[in-house]
Amino acid sequence: MSSTSSPRGRADDEAPPTTSDTTRDRPLGRPLVVLEHVDKHFGDLHVLKDIQLTVHEGEVVVVIGPSGSGKSTLCRVINRLETIDSGTITVDGHALPEEGKGLAQLRAEVGMVFQSFNLFAHMTILDNVTLGPIKVRGLKKAAAEKKSRALLDRVGVGAQAAKYPAQLSGGQQQRVAIARSLAMDPKVMLFDEPTSALDPEMINEVLDVMIRLARSGMTMVVVTHEMGFARRAGDRVVFMADGEIVEQNTPDEFFTNAQSHRAQDFLGKILTR
Ligand SMILES: Nc1ncnc2c1ncn2[C@@H]1O[C@H](COP(=O)(O)OP(=O)(O)OP(=O)(O)O)[C@@H](O)[C@H]1O
Ligand SMILES: [Mg+2]
Q: N or C: which end of the chain has fewer CB within 10 A?
């Protein structure tokens, strides 16, 4: 199926894209994150233009596009780190809360991993991970620690639990940041260039954790220039330019058969780097 060049062109209620055999064999679930006609300005700058995007439960959507195209802003509005000017965003059927306790709950349900790991420097790795479950989810300390240790093991840094962030490599810190988000039992995880601050030898250890997470069925929106990740774990590539979703397709189709000039131009630049 070919992609569309108009953000309105794709009927978002149509059947979700099928997974390729290199990713997962489960069908995709119900719409989990739905953006309808979302617009956002920073002053005169129109950074999100009539965005229509539905992320289904269990789907891994990879967002790519040139610098300044609005990828980070797209993630940030889903987590309500930025407000929108018009349109609607729902997560699991609920409109994003304006403020207060509802907003804290939303942030728990929509995990976010940034380029910079944002761990609390004065807290141990274990305490960084248990903080949210105790404060926001109301878990008892012992239960939170048990859960957090299991998650730290899952991302391969269980042995580092008693250390402080500065004692860990960048790749280890980013895996802790992923465990910290997972500790909140999020419904969806947003990743904004999670490997771009890392030394090359640490990139794969983080991508491996993300690929395993994708295969476990986590719903994910991932902004990344790692095309290997997109091909191995992505169900869909969304290409943005100038605040618009210019086209979207399965990774295989997108990388071999991009439709728009802007996507072809972008791919030409990054694939020949
Ligand atoms: N808080 C802000 N105030 C004003 N302008 C902003 C703000 N945040 C982002 N912008 C502008 O909005 C546009 C989109 O930014 P955004 O960070 O979403 O792009 P991006 O696609 O993530 O780029 P990159 O690949 O460089 O991370 C850019 O022109 C940026 O300069
Ligand atoms: Mg960005």
A: C
